[in-house]
Amino acid sequence: MQKIFLLFILSTIYMLSEGQKKEVTTLGAGCFWCVEAVYDQLNGVIAVESGYSGGHKENPTYKEVCAETTGHAEVCQITFNPDVISFGEILTVFWSIHNPTTLNRQGADIGMQYRSAIFYHSSEQEKVAKEQVKLINEQKLYSDPIVTEVTPYSSFFVAENYHKEYFENNPNQPYCRMVVGPKVEKFQKMFKDQLKAK
Fold this sequence. Notes:
By secondary structure, this protein is of the alpha+beta class. Helix content is 40%, strand content 20%. The radius of gyration is 18 Å and the shape is globular. It starts with a helix and ends in an 8-residue tail after the last helix.
């Protein structure tokens, strides 16, 4: 009897998890430590994984990407529930957490691996991304034009294990204190109504 009850509970949990809608997008907004730390806290986001996209080498290493020999950008692959948060809302956060007008640069981080990029996974994502770029430029929300790369997703390579939840695990590391921490605080103030319940 206990086995039957346990199987029933497990199958119910499986059905509920399978019933949750999922959509994936891949975004580059500078250092992936910053991007992961922000999207991890956003309501409707199911998972965030740091890695590399947009290059020409299979399974690049962090060292190779930083040496700009592979063409990859540091990105986060974000899985979210579109019934809770739309792709458009995901991008609203994206525009607010980095400067999309600086080519291959975010603050003191310089190199093509830090480029602003949206690797869209569907024609709908492409449409929304391009509409937002057009609108932001028309409204002159930034003094300079958007240079964000909007290209089709082709591949994603997971970053080395030590990058996972880097800010959470290393809040006192100097880069985290000076760069990631302030970005996270700014995000928390701007999107306080959209944060996951603690």
